[in-house]
Amino acid sequence: MGKVVMYGSVSVDGFIADEDDQPGPLFDWLTSGDVPLDESGVLTVSRPSYDYIRPYWDEIGVTIAGRHVFDMTDGWDGTPPSGIDHVVVVTHRPEPEGWDPEGWDPEAPFHFVDGVEAAVARAQELAGDRIVEVAAGDVGGQVLAAGLVDEVRMDVVPVVFGAGKRYFGSVDAQHLLEDPDVVIQGSRVLHLRYPVRR
């Protein structure tokens, strides 16, 4: 099975969005370079960021996100972000009214699952030996607290929010990580990768 990676862009003080769910400048690094990150031509990063992020994105088989993110993005209009094959949505509510998987790309389905343990199991089944990415925030913090995260990847952006949505959600217990095994400076971002201590 592929590893489970908690990932997200984060402010220096640990937030993934402000209190109104706005990311502010957290994704500015994705347009601050001159190397195209994908075919869209919209995302352009520095060479060090490209060399780190592109291979990682290519390894992701499934992303796990919360229902809140799914609803905020309107299900990414039926196409999972960054070319991901599957998105497992953790929710305690039924599928959204009017949600029509037949009207969306059948090669990129969404799976609605109740609970993080079930979400990780379903994601690993779908991903095979590829990476299962867990979005930072409440769901990511719950997966970490359940002992199911293998590594934490952070794209640390030079901004202080002061308040907002925390990278690790509402985790209320201590979890030790190993020393970072990757530290890469890009343009307007510092990429960090921490194995989770077992």
TrEMBL record:
InterPro entries: DHFR-like_dom_sf, RibDG_C. GO terms for molecular function: 5-amino-6-(5-phosphoribosylamino)uracil reductase activity. Residues 117-176 form the Bacterial bifunctional deaminase-reductase C-terminal domain. One of its GO terms (biological process) is riboflavin biosynthetic process. It comes from the Bacteria. This is Dihydrofolate reductase. It comes from Agromyces tardus.
